[in-house]
Amino acid sequence: MAPEKNWEHSIKLQLPAGNVGFMRRLQYSVEALDIYPNGTYSGALQNLDRVILGWGEAFSFCTNGQWIKGLDDYITGVLTQYEVDKGKLFQNSKTNAQRRMLGVRLIADTYSKRSGPT
Fold first, then answer.
1. Distance in angstroms between the alpha carbons of the first and the last residue of the chain
2. Averaged over 78-93, what is the pLDDT?
3. 37 and 43 in contact (C-beta within 8 Å)?
4. What is the Rg, in whole angstroms, of the alpha carbon atoms belonging to the chain?
5. I need a surface site. Which of 22, 27, 53, 60 has the fewest CB within 10 A?
């Protein structure tokens, strides 16, 4: 048993659309010199993982292993595209910006927030 075709189509539309929004949030985090959980690579992966977990629960009735494998293969392709898009953004970014995009704070950023403007 597998979900109807329109469900599969809906699922496959959500991932690339999410990638476009993710890239915008990632760039915004860098421009704002701050880390926003939804605007980091690690945050995007965590969000995607939660979505996939939800799909797994929602489609637990499925017995069609081929459909499940096909969806997993599609998700792997989307993740590969995330990597490509992130790589392009990284090429034009400085090391500190790359770290922020990954979701790893700079101690200097934390310190400057506490001490106020210099």
1. 63
2. 85
3. yes
4. 18
5. 60
The overall average pLDDT reported for the chain is 76
Region of residue 2 (left: phi > 0; alpha: psi -120 to 50; beta: else): beta
DSSP 37: G
Q: Can you tell me which residue has the tokens 């989307």?
A: 78
Q: How far is CA 75 from the centre of its chain?
A: 12
Q: Distance between CA atoms of 112 and 91, rounded to whole angstroms?
A: 26
HSE, side-chain direction, 13 A CA sphere, residue 32: 13
Which tokens belong to 42? 């690690």
Residues 6+ apart with CB under 8 A from 22: 44, 82
Structure tokens at 90: 């990284």
Look up tokens 């929004």; give the residue: 21
pTM (whole model) above 0.70: no
Q: Which two tokens stand for residue 82?
A: 């995330």
**Residue 4 is encoded by which pair of tokens?**
């109807």
Between vectors from CA 27 to CA 38 and to CA 73, what angle results, nearest 5°?
60
Residue type present at position 3? P
